[in-house]
Structures are given as structure tokens and as C-alpha cells.
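dude i think i finally got it to work??
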Amino acid sequence: MRGDDENTGRQASARVWREVAPGTRELLEAGLGAADVRTLLQDVTAARAHATRPADVVARWQQDRFVRPATSDPRRVAALEARLWDLVPDDVAGVELSPVAPLGTAVAVGPVSERRIVTTTRLTEVVSDSTNVLAVEAAARRSGAPRGEQVHLAAIHRQLRAQDFGPGAASHFRLLALVSSARDTGSGRTEAGLLTRHVRVWQTMLGSTIPHRRPRIEFTVLGDDAVVAERWRDAVLPAVADGEVPVVEDASRERGRGYYTGVALRLVADDGAAEIGDGGLTTWTAQLLGDRKERCLVSCLATERLAELATD
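look at this
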């Protein structure tokens, strides 16, 4: 599906640029300053907005998958999220994210396409993955912190993604995201500590909310860091073995390779039939701070999906 979206987007882009005057693309991409581009885009959208009739708004409301309300029960989701916040460790700082992030936030740190991002005329982008945005906040906090101090952040936020997930699938959804960043102390110890922390949090949350749905945490050793793989097996797994939710290996996983490093996680229920979360080690804060010694772990849980499973 994502490949089809990419091909369609490239074809539409090629068609549009053939219609505009020569040199327009170069002017917009590099010839004008950011403020001038912002002014130009705002003028265009303002003209289109003023030409919109009330009937057009209703039609868009009914047809546009980006603006349709979520199908989840907000009372049920809010109650569940309040319960989850109570289970977040006290040393994890809660963050209330803005609806938008700087343009390029997602593609700057991960191998994703800008075509899946909804951008604005003010050169920002709607948050499509709150783990990306929390990594930026973690990097900002790490830059002014003592070298040995760790940063642990959590946010519950609605994401909006442009790619088409298929019939009936929502374009926006809520995630509880955890992001941890710390300085490398050698021999994979930092990564092991961060992984143990996140796995324990998810074990507690899943065990407390959907024990009847047979939840588990699946892990995949990606093989690109032998030291981290060794620490995962000799340090992390023993530390989480007595948790409320089992941690099992999925050696067949391919998704996320090149996105995560060392170890990837997947949160599932109903013996693996329902996926409700994902995560893994990344290089994001190392990239953002220009420091190879920085370590970053991200993971997330779909709260609306969890609310459905908790009450089914």
C-alpha cells in the first residue's frame, strides 16, 4: 500500500511540475527564503479558503479521511489514558506536545517519506509520529544536562498520517509514546538499562489493562550490534522474566530493519493477532546532537486500540 502511495504521489508531482512555468520549482525550493515561501503559500491557501462555500465544507467533512472524527468512544479512551498515566513511572516527565512540529522533523531522523506527512503553509508539519518529536525534546534536554543524566519522556498525542492505510482505517490515532535518551557507558549497558525500563512499563500496563487478551511483548534482535544483542539476552531478558506479560522472540520480523537498531519491540494481544504497539533502539538523539555516544530508545502503544481490547 505504501509503495502504491509513493508511485501515485510521484506521478502527480511530475504532472503538476510540467504545468508550471520553467524555473518555478527551483525558485520555490531554493530561490526564495523561508519567510517568502511561507507568505506565498499563505496567500494561495487564503484565496482558496475564501472561495470555499459552506456546501464545500460539508462535502469535505464527509469525504476527506483526514478530517473525519475518530470512531473511538472518547470517554472510554480518556478513562483508560488516565489509568495509563498513573502507571507511568514518577521519574518519566510527561510532555504535552504541540499539534505541529518543525518541517522535516520525521524525515530528519528516520528513513520515511515526506509524502506521508501533512505539512502546513507555515513550514511546519502535523505530528505524524510523536516518538520523533519526543526525541527532539529529549535531545534539547540532554544538550543542557550533565553527561551522566538520563532523560525519560512520555506523551499521549493524536497522530495524523497522509498515507492510505486501506478501507476503514483511520488517518489519525492516539499513541502513548515513551522516549529515553542517555549517554553511552560502554558494553551495551546503557541500551540494556533503557530496554529493561521500557519493557517493564509495558508489562505493567498490558498486564493491568488487558490480561484476558493474552498480551505479550515480542522482540527481534536485528543483528547490527552484537554487543547490544548480547546484553539483551544476558541482562534484559533475565530482568523482565518475572513480569506480568511474557517477552518472546520473533526472529522472523523484517519490518523496522534500517529504522531501529540492535533490538526492536512489538506489543501484541490475542496471541499476536492484534498489534497495539511498537518500538526499538534508534540513532535519533545521536543525529540531533551530532554525538555518536548518545543512545535513544522509543516505544509506543495505541491507546484507542487498547481501549477496544480492554472492553471487548
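Residues 199 and 294 are 20 Å apart (CA to CA).
im so relieved honestly
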